[in-house]
Amino acid sequence: MTCYINSTLQSLLTLSCFVQEVHNQLLLWSSNPKLQIYREFVEVGVCRSSNMKKRKKMSLSSFKRAVAMVNSNFQGDKQNDAHEFLLCVLDMLKSPESGWNYTCPVRDHIALELLSTRTCRGCGEQSLMLEEFLSLSLDLVPEGSVSRCLQEYLKESKLEYMCECGAKKSFLKRSFFTLPNVLILHLKRFRLTKTLRVKKVESPIKLTEELVLNEEFMTTEDTTARYSLVSIISHVGSTADSGHYISDGVYRNKDMGDVTDCWLTYDDEDVSPTTGASVCQKRATTAFLLFYEKQH
Question: CA angle at residue 49 from 30 to 55, to 5 degrees?
Fold first, then answer.
């Protein structure tokens, strides 16, 4: 089964700034044997609009082999987690050797930094830590919105920590220190039960075509950022070890400009037209990965 690969690649290829940056590195990846993953990714993109099914299949298989050489979990035809596959691919794309004249598409467009601030409840002393993320994994807030899930992720929490003053409790608060051009949010639809079985969570989440990050999410005050939803990977099925991944993504037609509600649904070999409004409504209980592009 390769639906997790197909849906992940379709969503990545929807990210215009990311894909353009990959092409900008042509002189580097076309001549360096260590950057096979770049060549395979570009070939998949070229085949995307082709009618040659055999070439498409060969391209997808070649890309899968390149990833499996790094992570053996993706060998064979068994179903895999689309989020784990996405992170593996992004990690491969951001791992060239240092010293090259190179603009990393992942670091420049997808990576973000969160600032974690720990505050002692006793003396008020603070310690700061910066962490880099390629995606944020959010717990589902039933009947809540994506913004509400993100708010829950970043909210202040209690922390057991022995401070030099003798106090044992602190508060931990996280906020955006840097914002990416592409924000990837992972909705945690699978959880372990008490019997250590993986259960699918089908709680509906309100999806909207715009996500606003206001100053409550930010390290810097008076900062607001707006993001447009451009793609969704959904897991269709009631169990974690079965089911099917599909991708919905904005269709960018040069003649229509950037502002369009024309989307496409990619379901393996089947591609069908849809709209962003329809996707947001249909994927409320199945949305697994959300891709947002920053508005400029």
Answer: 65
